[in-house]
Amino acid sequence: MRTVKKGLTNICYGFFSTLANPTRLAILEKLDDGEMNVSALASVLGQEQSMISHNLKILERHNFVFSEKRGKEKYVSRNEVTVEALLDVLQHHSTVFCKATGNCDFS
Predict the structure, then answer these.
(1) How far apart are CA 49 and CA 4, in angstroms?
(2) Sheet strand arrangement including 65-70
(3) Do the domain assignments include residue 39?
(4) Containing structural domain, residue 58
(5) What is the dihedral of CA 90, 92, 97, 100, to 10 degrees?
(6) How many domains in the chain?
(7) What φ, ψ does residue 101 adopt, rounded to 5°?
(8) What SS3 string covers the chain?
(9) Is the pLDDT of residue 101 over 70?
(10) Is residue 2 part of a domain?
(11) What is the pLDDT of residue 9?
(12) How many C-beta neighbours within 10 Å does residue 90 have?
């Protein structure tokens, strides 16, 4: 059985608490189509640009997204290596455990 290695508890907490936010998850979902600038993200998500920027800083700190400044605009892209692996795990879990047992209502 695999266990969390000593010293990874704080990393795990930061990792999962970063993802336990609806706005951050929505940002990651919208970036599935490719990079976007912050203004476009705010518009498509129907939120203030300051709220999107705040959440992007947290996603950037944990390397879930990468950003690049172009002129006056900041463009953001998803860390596909990490996010795709997470989505694969979630898809597998949902298919194997949730649909089979019906016991994955996390609400």
Answers:
(1) 37
(2) 36-37, 73-78, 65-70
(3) yes
(4) 9-101
(5) 130
(6) 1
(7) -105, -25
(8) CCCCCCCCHHHHHHHHHHHCCHHHHHHHHHHHHCCEEHHHHHHHHCCCHHHHHHHHHHHHHCCCEEEEEECCEEEEEECHHHHHHHHHHHHHHHHHHHHHHCCCCCC
(9) no
(10) no
(11) 84
(12) 11
- Tokens 């290596």 map to which residue? 81
Q: Please tell me the distance from the alpha carbon of residue 89 to that of residue 30, in angstroms, as a whole number.
A: 19
Q: What pLDDT, in 10s, does the model give residues 45-63? A: 999 999 999 999 999 999 9
Q: For residue 107, is it within any domain? A: no
Question: Distance between CA 106 and CA 65 in Å, rounded?
Answer: 25
Q: CA 63: distance to chain centroid?
A: 9
Tokens of 50: 């300051």
Tokens representing residue 31 in the block: 């970036």
| Matching residue, tokens 């189509």 | 33
The dihedral through the CA atoms of 79, 62, 2, 107 has a sign that is negative
Question: Is 28 among the domain residues?
Answer: yes
- Domain of 51: which CATH number? 1.10.10.10
The token pair that represents 96 in the structure block: 């194997």
